[in-house]
Amino acid sequence: MHDVPQRIVVGVSAEPEADELTLSACDRHTFAHVAWLAERVDAEIHLVHVIDFIDERLGEEEDNVDGPVKAALRDALEALADTTSAKTEIVFRRGKPWRQLIAEAEAWDADLIAVSPRRESLGLTDRIFHGSTAARVLRRSERSVWVVDREAHTPIEKVLALVDGSPVSQLVLDAAGALTQALGGKRYALRCLDYPEDISMKRLADAEEAIAEYHRAVHDKAKAELDALVGDHPCEVLFSEDWVVRAAPKVIEQHDIDLVVLSSTSRTGLADLLGSTAEKLLQRSIASAWVVQPKND
């Protein structure tokens, strides 16, 4: 069984506003969710502030941590850390946010990186993945990544696992199962079916009957595979014949899903989840996404 995270890296960054540097509401929201989870699974947090812009108030030296600006930022971060009972350490880094978050996770051997999906200042078409920190962390990290949606809320009670029958589906189901067991929630699994033989079968004399039988066989095989993967922990199994990018948001809305668990690698149906399919899925989704990474043995 997949374990719940014990070490969580969450990134925040100050934004210049008037004569002050402030933490974004989006980052505060993400930290609140991380804190909520950490308190319930007894996890530790590294609250990582990454300076990713040039500001004269910060000075030129990377190690200039004693100036008034850094002191003010530390006060703000400590105030944020004080909102949780989970053990929280404040870490300052300078550089590209995605690179520094991954570096911190690797140095600390963290289980999970939590990020905000977008900044308020980004436009509609760019606000989630185009050039975002979340996108780069997802594509480069070997650790699991939690993209906390701005509209997400706690408690996390309903968790949806997106599976496709490939070996990583077990990892996704186990991660969803571990979370729901630890949080007292309910696990769902969605399998989107496809029928690649439909076109060729349309030429048959009894095409309608043959296609119907073929669809039943595909469904029965998928159900048997999924039943074997689910294990003993309860799980409501759902099937769809639509594309996962269209099907998942509908399921999320219909079942009031709080968190979607998926993998960074899979086969047809969820392929390219770190590319256009993932971007479209997460842009349409109204829930946070937990992207698990297969371990390289």
What is the fold's blueprint, element by element?
Elements: E1 7-12, E2 14-17, E3 20-23, H1 25-41, E4 44-51, H2 68-81, E5 88-94, H3 97-108, E6 112-115, H4 133-140, E7 144-147, E8 158-163, H5 168-183, E9 186-192, H6 198-201, H7 207-230, E10 236-240, H8 244-255, E11 259-263, H9 276-284, E12 288-292
Parallel strand pairs: 1-4, 1-6, 4-5, 6-7, 8-9, 8-11, 9-10, 11-12
Antiparallel strand pairs: 2-3, 7-12
CATH architecture verdict of the largest domain: 3-Layer(aba) Sandwich
Domain count, please report it. 2
How do the helices and strands follow one another from N- to C-terminus? EEEHEHEHEHEEHEHHEHEHE
Number of helices: 9
Uncertain runs are 55-66, 119-131, 266-274
Strand sequence of the main sheet, in spatial order?
A: 5-4-1-6-7-12-11-8-9-10
Shape: elongated
Q: Whole-number radius of gyration?
A: 21 Å
- Here the CATH topology of the largest domain equals Rossmann fold
* CATH top level assignment of the largest domain: Alpha Beta
Task: Work out the strand percent.
Answer: 15-25%
Structural class: alpha/beta
Q: How many β strands by DSSP?
A: 12
Oligomer: single chain
| Span of the ends, CA to CA | 17 Å
CATH evolutionary superfamily of the largest domain: HUPs
